TrEMBL record, chain A:
<dbReference type="GO" id="GO:0005960">
    <property type="term" value="C:glycine cleavage complex"/>
</dbReference>
<dbReference type="GO" id="GO:0016594">
    <property type="term" value="F:glycine binding"/>
</dbReference>
<feature type="region of interest" description="Disordered">
    <location>
        <begin position="1"/>
        <end position="20"/>
    </location>
</feature>
<dbReference type="GO" id="GO:0030170">
    <property type="term" value="F:pyridoxal phosphate binding"/>
</dbReference>
<dbReference type="GO" id="GO:0019464">
    <property type="term" value="P:glycine decarboxylation via glycine cleavage system"/>
</dbReference>
<protein>
    <recommendedName>
        <fullName>glycine dehydrogenase (aminomethyl-transferring)</fullName>
        <ecNumber>1.4.4.2</ecNumber>
    </recommendedName>
</protein>
<dbReference type="InterPro" id="IPR015424">
    <property type="entry name" value="PyrdxlP-dep_Trfase"/>
</dbReference>
<dbReference type="GO" id="GO:0004375">
    <property type="term" value="F:glycine dehydrogenase (decarboxylating) activity"/>
</dbReference>
<keyword id="KW-0560">Oxidoreductase</keyword>
<feature type="domain" description="Aminotransferase class V">
    <location>
        <begin position="185"/>
        <end position="302"/>
    </location>
</feature>
<keyword id="KW-0663">Pyridoxal phosphate</keyword>
<dbReference type="GO" id="GO:0005829">
    <property type="term" value="C:cytosol"/>
</dbReference>
<feature type="domain" description="Glycine dehydrogenase C-terminal">
    <location>
        <begin position="379"/>
        <end position="476"/>
    </location>
</feature>
<comment type="function">
    <text>The glycine cleavage system catalyzes the degradation of glycine. The P protein binds the alpha-amino group of glycine through its pyridoxal phosphate cofactor; CO(2) is released and the remaining methylamine moiety is then transferred to the lipoamide cofactor of the H protein.</text>
</comment>
<dbReference type="Pfam" id="PF21478">
    <property type="entry name" value="GcvP2_C"/>
</dbReference>
<dbReference type="Pfam" id="PF00266">
    <property type="entry name" value="Aminotran_5"/>
</dbReference>
<dbReference type="InterPro" id="IPR015422">
    <property type="entry name" value="PyrdxlP-dep_Trfase_small"/>
</dbReference>
């Protein structure tokens, strides 16, 4: 049932040089079933002694049908997961141009540091006196985050970007409540160019979302913000640089208008990696911003590891930071666990059970320390340079909206260049898989028709960028030359052919079901 | 006489007696691509013109459907729950979203007629 996507036929124009194999394997490209398809209950990787005779008390609850657990021997289990991993594509296998989520190289030094026993083998419930080094690392990370942003306080506990947004917005809600205008202010302004999580976050904590349309140049107009502000507005959430890869140049005027109306300014910091070391967030008038350690500071994510979304806060919001909070006392660093306690009198509560993602803190600080101030600044510059290089090299064949301005860390294209070819953005993305690349983000941001959003990050060399650009140029020329089959049938060479996204969404198969008929027929 | 009116957000309204049938236009379904899920309001919900009334989700995006007119939801197309593809097949037919009992029929005059909507679509091309 999971093999449906695998095409048995090859198109005429792109014939493979050999015959279809008898096994379904293609040399090193090995076919692999689901674990429930290959496992058998009677097989095990460990030798467990039979239990001594006992009398169970299950009565009528005793199971009568077999358990159907998939047993595998150790070599079978090893091969299963290694074979699956070979169908995967990650930043360690090639350029990963996903514009909606920074995928940069995670230096192995980070991993070495995170595996130091003093960081890796500690437990959140250990007495604080036995983890002074870990608390010291958290304090040092906080100092770096505050230095880089110019902000007053940081909450380390949020577990990822959207969780950080939630924390920042809850701080804003707590601040309004403390000020006495919490009930009156029930609206949050969110520009159309914001991340989708922004309106979702505002709605989750009971705010009504009011959209601000983008200007023709893709940025937010301060006049549009002023017109939407009022005594009912609690905050504005702005993504900067925005999802079109543009820096919001009027951000200071926007922040001033927001503050003049008695509201707070939340900045979505998911794209902080484009301005790290170049812009002090506090200078922009920001009251709260989350920082994706897993994007800006290279810690692994996207199936490769947990995220971490610390939130930096302005003076006005600092008192409402959640617990546990790190506080420096005469006796050294202390994690204040209870809201209302000394150092957390007005804390908004708790965002997570413990102090946050320790492993990510270690990796992020390792990245900061190994890069230094000059290295971090250069990382931003290289990320922006790489994106602009890609855009400049593809402009003659593809179409880029807002091209009159330099991009930030993302190169954005629309589908105007595909007009008349009979092909869509999706077809281009699928053809890119055949060329050995993970596709870019497609159909986002929504404000751009058939968007293709490419983020190379600072990880790629010029040689690597040139190969990627050459692949896209060849595809663009093939599309314009009418070589439709290359696109419409793509991917031809992936472990699975093009999947039926519509059927997958309309009638999702969320659970493996034993093919009863097949089993019966075999008996 | 039945006449169809449109909003610039690509909802349509077809007045039948004292109720108005609401859905999304053919252009909207084309832009969305294959619709995979529709979230309809509860019967009895009071909507105001321009306010959120439903959500339509396609393989490309999730979008809000705004109430083209103010009124009370008197019926919803529950067939869409099991067959969201009706929105693609017949947006102005079997793919309708909800029926509204209008609270301010005068609002109808503020919407685009078929000609004006077509002209509006031409400006988007």
């Amino acid at each position: 049932m999971n093999r449906e996507g695998r095409g048995a036929t090859t198109p005429h124009s792109i014939a493979l040089s050999g015959p279809e194999t008898f096994t379904g394997n293609r040399a090193l490209d090995l076919e692999e079933g689901l674990i429930f398809e290959i496992g058998r209950i009677e097989v095990t990787g460990v030798d467990i002694a039979e239990p001594a005779p006992f009398r169970d008390r299950l009565g009528t609850q005793a199971r009568t049908a077999p358990l159907d657990l998939p047993g595998l021997s150790e070599p079978e289990a090893m091969r299963h997961y290694v074979r699956l991993s070979r169908m995967n594509y990650g930043i360690d296998s090639g350029l990963f141009p996903l514009g909606s989520c920074t995928m940069k190289h995670n230096p192995r030094l980070n991993e070495k540091m995170a595996r130091l026993p003093g960081f890796a083998d500690i437990h959140p419930l250990q007495p604080q006196s036995t983890v002074k080094g870990a608390l010291g690392l958290m304090a040092e990370l906080s100092r770096y985050l505050l230095e880089l942003t110019g902000m007053q306080a940081v909450a380390l506990t949020p577990k990822a970007g959207a969780h950080g947004e939630l924390c920042g917005m809850m701080a804003i809600k707590a601040a309004h409540a403390a000020r006495g205008d919490g009930d009156a202010r029930h609206v949050v302004l969110v520009p159309e160019s914001a991340h989708g999580t922004n309106p979702a976050t505002a709605a989750l904590i009971g705010y009504q979302v009011r959209a601000i349309p983008a200007r023709a140049d893709g940025t937010v107009d301060p006049e549009a913000v002023k017109a939407a502000l009022g005594p009912e507005v609690a905050a504005l959430m702005l993504t900067n640089p925005n999802t079109c890869g543009l820096f919001e140049r009027d951000v200071v005027a926007i922040a001033e208008a927001v503050h003049a109306a008695g509201a707070y300014f939340y900045s979505d910091g998911a794209n902080f990696n484009a301005i790290l070391g170049k812009v002090r967030i506090a200078d922009l008038g920001v009251d709260a911003m989350h920082i994706n350690l897993h994007k800006t500071f290279s810690t692994p994510h996207g199936g490769g590891g947990p995220g971490a979304g610390p939130v930096v806060l302005s003076d006005a919001l600092a008192p409402f930071a959640p617990v546990p909070a790190l506080v420096a006392t005469a006796d050294g660093l202390v994690l204040v666990e209870d809201e209302g306690a000394d150092g957390a009198e007005q804390a908004l509560g708790r965002m997570s059970a413990f102090h946050g993602q320790m492993g990510m803190f270690v990796r992020a600080l390792a990245w900061m320390l190994s890069h230094g101030a000059d290295g971090m600044r250069q990382a931003s510059e290289d990320a922006v340079l790489s994106a602009n290089y890609i855009r400049a090299c593809l402009m003659d064949l593809m179409s880029a909206p807002f091209a009159e301005r330099p991009a930030m860390h993302e190169a954005l294209f629309d589908d105007t260049w595909l007009a008349g070819t009979g092909l869509t953005t999706l077809d281009v993305a699928k053809a890119l898989i055949d060329e050995g690349y993970h596709p870019m983000t497609v159909y986002f941001p929504l404000v751009v028709h058939g968007a293709m959003l490419i983020e190379p990050t600072e990880s790629e060399s010029k040689a690597s960028l040139d190969l990627f650009i050459a692949a896209l140029r060849d595809l663009a020329m093939a599309a314009k030359a009418g070589d439709k089959e290359r696109f419409l049938g793509a991917p031809y060479y992936a472990p699975r052919r093009r999947l039926d996204e519509t059927r997958a969404a309309r009638a999702p198969v969320l659970r493996w079901v034993k093919p009863a008929q097949v089993a019966d027929a075999a008996e | 006489m039945t006449s169809v009116r449109y909003t610039k957000d690509h909802e349509y309204v077809r007045v039948e007696g004292d109720v108005a049938v609401v859905g999304i236009s053919d252009y909207a379904q084309q832009q969305l691509g294959d619709v995979v899920f529709v979230e309809l309001p509860e019967i009895g919900k009071v909507v105001t013109k321009g306010g959120e009334a439903a959500v339509v989700e396609s393989v490309k995006a999730a979008s809000e459907v705004y109430a083209p007119l103010s009124g009370e939801v008197v019926e919803v197309n529950s067939e869409l729950e099991g067959a969201p593809g009706l929105v693609n097949e017949a947006p102005e037919g079997k793919g309708w979203f909800m029926k509204l009992k209008l609270s301010n029929p005068a609002e109808l005059d503020e919407l685009l007629n078929e000609h004006a909507y077509k002209d509006f679509l031409d400006t988007l091309a």
